[in-house]
Design brief:
This protein has four domains: 363 residues, Aminopeptidase (3-Layer(aba) Sandwich), CATH 3.40.630.10; 100 residues, no CATH class; 94 residues, no CATH class; 240 residues, Rossmann fold (3-Layer(aba) Sandwich). The chain contains 24 helices and 34 strands. Belongs to the peptidase M14 family.
Length: 841
């Protein structure tokens, strides 16, 4: 009987192996002949998982457009049988799970197509995974003995489908490599970002998008040793692979440097054998913590970026500058080869990878290497923002505790940039680096990243306390949280009687979400222009009043208000009288009713799709407030008088025709509110009829022009190869400045009198002469952290960053810097909410 069962099992396994198919057999065409729709990619991996015993799919979420997100696992049959133990063993190496590992299997995670229009990656993923999963491949069997391959074939399905669907409509029947053919000009907004036009490759640490958040949950369940991120670059670039370019963060370990070199030389061997061009150690650095290579690096892995020349313009094939046709088939085989190289070096170095991974966590958690070892967040101030910051720490598995009452502590005050002595209370939070997430903690909280080279690929400052606008300190010494302190649970508001008014705070994004919810429900809400005191409590300007008068006919008024507040964990106060002890009574004209604004957001060709996406996401996913999308070139056909607010995102030049610009300004003068961000300000600067200018006087303008000419004369004499370095002297890459805010103006309500702006451009505007300078850089002492070019830094003093100009019965809100940057600069969201809901009411 046992022999019959064994023969039957052997037959079934053989039948299963025979049933599985290569990508070409399954899809019905060779890879590279066309772009594969995402649902067919999913079907292929499901086919392999169903027909091969050593393949498993793990679904970890879905996109905003409801496409599945998954990884495919493949290893030896023995490893797959023991896969849960292998996973837990690895977490034991990190200290996130107690115990000692009993296995030594390397975990190699390879991610493809995080930028949707870099669509070669998913095609290469199918080729690579098939080669490793193919039971007839002896080499692959050897490589999977001590390695688990975790492969994500498409990290951005929505972006990929946006690109491939468009390309399928425009491509020629016969290969057309002519760069001027329409298939090589992808329209706005392009397939690079996700549904909300956010760049998923710059979202890792912040996890603002659901794709990133869901992927990071799975990532933390595995904590891989190697993470390879596949991309494409411009068509005239050949191929890039590690080692990375400087600046390389000082927290990287010697082995992380060494393994990049091991991979680079192994990959170069393959490319040299085929006479393929490539470059290394250029352009792509390891600094900004939210990339698909740096975030794994700061979590103990070897993070690496792969860049194939081509990208969305290349399509199935396009001529490069040399007149050679760069085909999809060639791009696939290049990325496939780099992937196979990564799998090979992982197999050859599996023991070292696991040993060094364990060493990384043990040494760093015991002896953090950065200057600052502990961080204290004041929890008794601005509770809403602190809560949001702690939620981010939770997402990143960063541990923290509560400080207790202590005094005489010395540390760097993030807000002043100076060393001070301070005290803590039981509400304050301690985050120290003596924990498994030691390096990530130090990187995210570091006030200033150390730059080996000023030429960087991204921003240079991201200190969480400044991004969230909370009072915090960085300590050079260890400060532990005493045991026994736990998070204070939210105490729900009671539905108790019928107070005259509910009073709600206004100092965090959650407060704006609460306001939006009330307005959606038809609840009338008021805002206080002045601080006031009542019932022994003090309330700042900008506090929200939800008064019974005006809502008396609203069915279930009290229940709606209290239920929404409890849902969003907003602590309400109440008053039984409109007669205040100090300030303006509730019936004063300075306690204004907030009209629920009808908002239009401009998009389309010429607008920054990233800034547009940040705003779109803010309305839909954070405020949950309706917004109409209008493409700028359609303005001529639109009736603007149905809107109260129009938002102009940043741009790549003027995207309003003269006719449409006049139409918008007529609407503003009739009472509309226009919010212009970053480069959109160029439509108004130094134009007749507007108060916005780059210089206060003509003499100042001439002096600046003379200085610029002298700089240009010097640059002309610089050696050619140094001109890029000279060029960055007039740019900003995430420099943080302290702005002085006019607390009496609604644009600054709830901000506490100051705002830390992230400056990513060199634009400088003079104070408004007739408008309100709501947020200004007073002097050069306002600079805090991050890179800003030496030639523009002195000019930033006495400049306007956020201001409001009256035009007829309407207003223009000027935002020189983007307060919504990548949706992670949390404190800027309240500034935007002020502009939308409170200015001009």
């Amino acid at each position: 009987m046992k022999k019959i069962q064994l023969l039957l099992l052997t037959f079934l396994v053989a039948l299963s192996v025979k049933a599985q198919k290569s990508p070409e057999e399954f899809l019905g065409y060779p890879l590279g002949e066309r772009f594969t729709p995402h649902h067919r990619v999913v079907a292929y991996f499901e086919h392999l998982a169903a027909s091969l015993p050593n393949v498993e799919l793990v679904y970890y979420g879905e996109t905003y457009e409801n496409r599945p997100l998954f990884v495919a696992l493949v290893s030896s049959p023995a490893n797959m049988t023991n896969i849960e133990n292998i996973r837990l063993d690895n977490l034991k190496r990190t200290g996130m799970v107690e115990g000692s590992p009993s296995s030594q299997v390397a975990l190699n995670w390879m991610q493809y197509n995080v930028h949707g229009n870099e669509a070669v990656a998913t095609e290469a993923a199918m080729m690579t995974f098939w080669q490793i999963a193919d039971p007839n491949n002896a080499q692959s069997k050897e490589w999977t003995q001590n390695q688990v391959l975790i492969l994500d074939p498409c990290a951005n399905p929505d972006g990929r489908e946006r690109y491939t669907s468009w390309y399928g409509q425009k491509q020629n029947n016969r290969l057309q490599p002519d760069p001027q053919s329409v298939e090589h000009f992808e329209p706005w907004p392009g397939g690079r970002p996700n549904h909300y036009l956010m760049d998923l490759n710059r979202d890792w640490a912040w996890q603002t998008q659901k794709e990133t958040e869901e992927r990071l949950k799975l990532y933390h369940e595995w904590m891989p040793h190697l993470f390879v991120d596949f991309h494409e670059q411009g068509i005239n670039e050949p191929f890039y692979f590690a080692p990375a370019a400087p600046p390389l963060h000082e927290q990287l370990s010697p082995f992380q440097h060494e393994f990049q070199e091991i991979f680079g030389r192994n990959t170069a061997r393959y490319f040299d054998e085929n006479s393929w061009d490539y470059f290394t150690k250029e352009r792509f650095d390891l600094l900004y913590p939210a990339y698909g290579d740096t975030y794994p690096m700061y979590n103990g892995a070897i993070g690496m970026t792969i860049e194939q020349g081509g990208s969305g313009r290349a399509g199935l094939g396009m001529l490069n500058a040399l007149g050679d046709t760069v085909t999809l088939k060639d791009r696939i085989i290049h990325q496939h080869t780099a992937g196979i190289s990564a799998i090979e070096v992982t197999a050859k170095n599996a023991s070292r990878l696991t040993d060094e991974f364990a060493k990384y966590f043990k040494s760093n958690s015991a002896n953090p290497r950065a200057k600052y070892k502990s961080f204290v967040i004041k929890g008794d101030q601005n509770a809403g923002r602190v809560k949001a910051l702690l939620a981010l720490l939770d997402k990143n598995k960063i541990q923290y505790g509560f400080a207790g009452n202590r005094s005489g502590i010395k540390g760097l005050d993030y807000m002043t940039g100076k060393s001070v002595t301070f005290s803590t209370t039981e509400k304050d939070i301690i985050v120290n680096s003596y924990q498994p997430k030691s390096v990530l903690t130090q990187v995210l909280f570091e006030p200033q990243a150390t730059l080996q080279d000023s030429i960087t690929y991204d921003i240079t400052s991201w200190a969480l306390p400044l991004a969230y606008g909370v009072q915090a300190y960085a300590l050079e010494s260890r400060l532990d949280a005493p045991k026994g302190f736990e998070k204070e649970p939210f105490i729900a508001n009671a539905l108790d009687g019928k107070p005259l008014a509910y009073i709600s705070p206004w100092n965090a994004t959650q407060d704006a979400k609460f306001l939006a919810a009330l307005l959606r429900e038809g609840i009338r809400v008021r805002v206080t222009n002045y601080a006031f005191e009542t019932g022994g409590q003090s309330y700042p300007a900008g506090s929200l009043l939800i008064h019974r008068n005006g809502n008396q006919y609203k069915k279930d008024f009290d229940k709606i208000v209290v239920d929404l507040a409890n849902e969003m964990e907003i602590s309400l106060k109440t008053s039984t009288t409109g007669y205040v002890d100090k300030g303006k009574d509730f019936g004063s004209s300075d306690v204004r009713t907030i009209k629920a604004p009808k908002v239009a957001l401009l998009g389309g060709s010429g607008t920054s799709s990233l800034n547009f996406g940040e705003l779109w996401y803010f309305f839909e996913q954070e405020l949950d407030y309706p917004v109409s999308i209008i493409e700028a070139d359609m303005l001529g056909r639109m009736d603007l008088y149905g809107y109260d607010v129009v938002i102009m995102p940043s741009s790549y030049g003027s995207y309003l025709s003269d006719t449409n610009f006049k139409k918008v300004m007529d609407w503003v003068k009739a009472g509309g509110k226009l919010i212009a961000i970053e480069n959109a300000l160029m439509a108004f600067a130094d134009k007749e009829g507007f108060d916005l200018s780059k210089f206060d006087t003509e003499e100042e303008k001439k002096a600046a022009e003379k200085a610029e000419k002298e700089i240009q004369n010097v640059e002309r004499l610089e050696p050619y190869q140094e001109r890029e370095r000279m060029g960055i002297s007039t740019t900003a890459a995430g420099a943080v400045y302290e702005l002085k805010l006019d607390e009496t103006h609604p644009l600054a309500f709830g901000m506490g009198g100051k705002f830390y702006t992230l400056k990513n451009n060199g634009s400088r505007y003079a104070y408004l002469n007739n408008g309100v300078n709501a947020g200004i850089i007073q002097n050069n002492d306002a600079y805090r952290f991050g890179y800003i070019g030496s030639k523009i830094k002195p000019r930033m003093a006495q400049s306007m960053v956020y201001g409001v100009e009256n035009q007829g019965r309407g207003h223009i809100v000027y935002m020189v810097d983007n307060p919504m940057f990548r949706s992670f600069w949390e404190s800027g969201k309240l500034l935007m909410a002020n502009a939308i809901f409170l200015v001009g009411q």
